[in-house]
Amino acid sequence: MESITAQIGKDRYTTTIMARKHHLISDEPEEMGGQDLGFAPQELFAAALASCTIITLRMYADRKGWDVESIAIDVTFDRDAAANVTRLERKIEFTGNLDQTQKERLKVIANSCPIHKTLTNPIEITTTVQ
To answer: What is the CA 39 to chain-centroid distance, rounded?
Structure first.
């Protein structure tokens, strides 16, 4: 099982997140009482989908030998608390020489990335307090 470790001190909302040998900072924007020193949690959530999608697309295009110079993705995140619904929208742009059939196939592949599959299937979260 993969493990992510996060730690926060008394600095308002500034959180250090560690995975393997890497670390990043998460924080809340100033208007939420944070110092805006890093990604907000919902931005990290959307970033996980964006990075997983784009890496999956790059792997697939490379394996197929398709002419893809670059891939850009924009993920928007909206939480409708009243309806208890979270909406994520991905807009993907390819630079290179792709026909419409290849683009449609890449759209299917985007929906096959591990994070997309995780988010569209049941998730179980267990919490223990020490």
So the answer is: 12
Residue 54 CB neighbours (<10 A): 19
pTM (2 d.p.): 0.90
* Predicted local distance difference test score (pLDDT) of residue 1: 73
Write down the H helix ranges in the chain.
41-64, 100-110, 114-119
- Taking the C-alpha atoms of residue 78 and residue 48, their distance in angstroms, rounded to an integer, is 15
How many whole angstroms separate alpha carbon 77 and alpha carbon 17? 21
pLDDT per residue as tens digits for the range 91-122: 999 999 999 999 999 999 999 999 999 999 99
**Residue 46 neighbours by CB under 8 Å, 6+ apart:** 75, 76, 77, 88
φ and ψ at 49, to 5 degrees? -65, -45
Place of tokens 């926060």: 8
